Amino acid sequence: RTAAPLSCSSKHSTKEKHLVLLRDGRTLIGFLRSIDQFANLVFHQTVERIHVGKKFGDIPRGIFIVRGENVVLLGEIDMDKPCDTVLQQVSIEEILEEQRLQQQAKQETEKAKVTALKDRGLSIPKADNLDEY
Amino acid sequence: SFHFLMTSPFNCTLEKEEGLVEEEDEIDQFNDDTFGDGAIDDDWQEEHKRLAELEERKNDGLGGLGLGGLGMGGMGGGDSSTVQLPPPASRERGGGDLAESLAMLILGADPAIASVGGPAGPGDRSTGLPPPPSMPQQHHHPSQLPSHHHLTPSGLPPGPLHPSLLSYQQHQHLLRRGGAPMQQMNSHNIWENNMGFGPVSVTPGLITQMEDSPLMSIIKEVGLPNRPPPVMSEDGRDFSERAPPPRSSSPVIGSPPVRAVPIGTPPKQPMSHIHHPTAVHVRAPVHHQHRYPPSFPERISPNTLLNMANSPLCRPPFPAGVGPVLSQIQRAQMLNSQVAGFPRGCQGPPLLPGGGGFRPFFGQPPPHRMGPHHNHVPCPIIRHNTTHLHPQHRRMLTQRMQSRGGYRGGRVGDWRSRDPYSNLMTQREKEWVAKIQMMQLQSTDPYLDDYYYQNYFEKMEKRQERDRDGVRKEHTTKLITPQVAKLEHTYRPVQFAGSLGKLTVSSVNNPRKMIDTVVTSRTDDEEKREKQVWNKRRQILYTVEKMYSLLLEVQDFEKRFMQTPEEQREALLEQHKTHTLQLYASLKEKEWDDRVSDEQCLLIMSVRKGKRLISRLIPFLPPLQAATVVMGIARNLHALAKKDKQDQALCWLVEPVAVVISSLSSAALTDLLQELQGSEGQLSKVLQNKFGVTLLYLILSEGERMQSSDLNCQLMDDNRWTELVFSVTRELLNVPPSSLSPPLFTPPNLLSLFSRYVDRQRLELLQEKLQISALSR
């Protein structure tokens, strides 16, 4: 109910990292430098964090300007709180590899599902095709 | 104490300064911080001296012009009271000169222009001296310049820049403009300086006034950039280093809150339900000893910062070119350096939610709705404009914040100095965005919109009450959810008295409402009737017009006849005859030649124009036809009389008719009288009309004349005349005097007429009634 990130602690916005989740599923972490009424964001020293299972990797991205409509949620990261030790940080290459594998696996299952359905004479339209109708 | 002024070759005359004393009345009484307790400070004077000397040293080469400028400065004058004068003078003028200054702004990237157009500001006090650079524009100068004149930064960090050092001129600026109402609302931080000048306080009233004009709001927000100093070509001195050329547009590019109110709001935005968190009237509990570095306002124009950055005091004089735009980074850096270097020992923890710039004091006291203060730190961040949080909620938030803030306290200063990119958004901007977001949460019915929130806190309250037995009341604050007043923002266009039309500020929020369109729906019947009436009238007028054209032809015949040559006269005569016939034809009855169509007659005579037409027409008709026309008139007179009540246009007919009557035969005359009398009651109506009476008299008089003059008069051949006269007299006697209209004239022989037919008694009565006497002629 409150715009706490902006109203309260944006005073401390100097070293407060923010985390934003985008509509395409990406997670960006960085210093929120600017925001406007559309929730367009300017992120500084952004890092894209990819999570695969229990592992995550940070890809430094520099400066991000995010269009407001793509923001799902935005939150402040409390740097003082102890980080989750469950997650394990790995190198970029590794996480990308992991992600690729994950995507691959997902695609395969999807494909199998579609084939199975097709065999049974059913077809479920994929989400990305829906807009065409 | 200001001895250096006296010694300065460019001393301003005291008279001029005293002249400003009168304007003391115009001092903004609310401006306590400039003129009140915190205003005058001995230290300040010393600082002033010191700076002046510094300037003098620096500007030796300039021949002390700088000093002259100093001399001109508001410091001028023997007593501190006169110090206050320039600001009010400038301020008062500033208000009036707003338009002017803006015009100059737009024009004046060129210092030359500015110098030419420089109004007689307080700076014109110097006699014979070209006004010092910053002087003429003083009162237009925005409040942007931090007025830190402190030369020996005590406790200031050796940052990459020396923003704290300003040219003395710029400092002058600020002093002078101490009370400018145009000053930005949030600019109070500027005045946080050792001089002890507090921020300018602007009364709410003033603010609303200011907010009236969108222009003012912009200025308030943005402030006015510096006016360029006049370039003294004759001296070869370039004062451009003192202040950068003004920008013609908003100096802050790309930031959202350029306007105090969102675009498109009606001029007077009722923001009653929104508290402005920013301090309106600020008192600076400044401790002079502390020598705070100037806190930056939440918004500083790049120009301002640029000035600071490029202050001549920290650079060799006359830097080559000073770009007007300061990058965000530089600004942020400056802010950071400022903030970081803030000496501890001020009230409250150094890390304060006071925004990008440090404020050693806080804005308006926190709302009463807030819970008890923790750590004696008021929480200005909780804005009452944004949301109506439950007090518990608010308390939780603040607690959370403070705990976090407290933890961070030790490290922040350090961090801030390291992060050059912080504070890219000013506090104001953040608030603005938050406000927009919060405004969407405002609801007129919280129980409808936020049911669970309300219930949750209600339950919590109950729980608290239960636990505490309601002893400590302060904790069981009830949430009184103020509902946003359902204000009616109907836009009523402003209309000045006596002007045509309305002044409209067209915007998204108010559609143009310049024309009052009122639908007057008339029923069909009404409309039909109206139409019919109009059509008929038009028809009549048309006929009359046609007849007029004929008549005019006839009238002009004689003239033309004279002019045409002999051969064509015949033809013209023929033409004339035709015309006349036509005229008559239009009047007469379709089949009968000797009778005028009643219908036509009525129609034509119902219009004033028609009556006039007839009166002009009759003389041109041949006698017989004229007689029939008169007959027709007499016949229809009763009907016409009614219509003629108002303007008595029938009276025009008197003359031509009289002429006609006099040429009537007795029989015709009798007929005429008969026609006039017509049916029962007709005569009475006729008598009500002036013309009617006159006509009657004419007839009677003619009859009398006939009788008395012509012995062979056939008038008495039959009884018609007698009878008619009898009935007339009867009628005349019977008719009430009120309804008897006085005639245009009374023929003299009426008495003798009546005396023939009525007895003495009646005669006397008649005499009385009609006011005819034997002597009347």
Describe what this molecule looks like in 3D:
The complex is a heterodimer of chains A (133) and B (777). The longest helix of chain A is centred in the C-terminal third of the chain and has 28 residues. Chain A has three helices and six strands. Chain A is of the alpha+beta class. In chain A, 20% of the residues are buried. The N terminus of chain B is likely disordered.
What is the topology?
The complex is a heterodimer of chains A (133) and B (777).
Chain A: H1 4-7, E1 17-22, E2 27-35, E3 41-52, E4 55-66, E5 71-77, E6 88-89, H2 92-119, H3 127-130
Parallel strand pairs in A: 4-6
Antiparallel strand pairs in A: 1-2, 1-5, 2-3, 3-4
Chain B: H1 3-7, H2 14-19, H3 32-35, H4 42-58, H5 65-72, H6 80-83, H7 86-96, H8 98-107, H9 111-117, H10 168-176, H11 204-212, H12 214-222, H13 302-309, H14 328-340, H15 391-418, H16 427-439, H17 446-449, H18 451-468, H19 524-563, H20 566-587, H21 598-606, H22 608-617, H23 623-643, H24 654-662, H25 666-677, H26 682-688, H27 690-709, H28 719-734, H29 750-757, H30 760-770
Distance linking N and C termini of chain B: 109 Å
Mean pLDDT of chain A: 83
SSE order of chain B: HHHHHHHHHHHHHHHHHHHHHHHHHHHHHH
**Cα shape of chain B:** elongated
Number of helices of chain B: 30
What are the segments of chain B in which pLDDT stays under 50 over at least 5 consecutive residues? 1-23, 63-95, 114-166, 178-212, 226-237, 247-258, 264-298, 315-324, 341-386
InterPro entries (chain A): Lsm1 (IPR034104), LSM_dom_sf (IPR010920), PTHR15588 (IPR044642), Sm (IPR047575), Sm_dom_euk/arc (IPR001163)
Main location (chain A): cytoplasm
Pfam families (chain A): LSM
Subcellular location (chain A): Cytoplasm; Cytoplasm, P-body
